[in-house]
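My convention is simple: the sequence line spells out the residues, with the fold written below as integer tokens. I include a record here:
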Amino acid sequence: MNKIFVCNIDELEEGEALKVDCGVNGIDALAVFNSQGNFFAMNDRCSHGNASMSEGYLEDDGTVECPLHAARFCLKSGKAMCMPATDPIQTFPVVIEDDALYVDMAG
């Protein structure tokens, strides 16, 4: 398992996102989200344009809206939920160990 440390779970508040530089498997950075106490990770770059998803708008329905073109993506699957985006964003499993949050970059 190729895990990247993100932060302690109490450092990422509900409704917030964090950008994590990683440079692993061709991914420059990750966006990690706390949505209603659940943690999600995806490529930080929007599939439609050069925008940081960690700067997007976290919605109560489990999606994040791109800050540049208002495309929405599912936090669980990365699926594009509306135009102008049509391509998904790669997502990654989140692992919690001893109150620390990691992203599993294996594969």
Notes: The chain has a mean pLDDT of 94. The beta strands are 3-8, 17-24, 27-35, 38-43, 57-58, 63-65, 72-74, 91-92, 94-97, 100-104. The domain at 3-104 is CATH 2.102.10.10 (Rieske Iron-sulfur Protein).
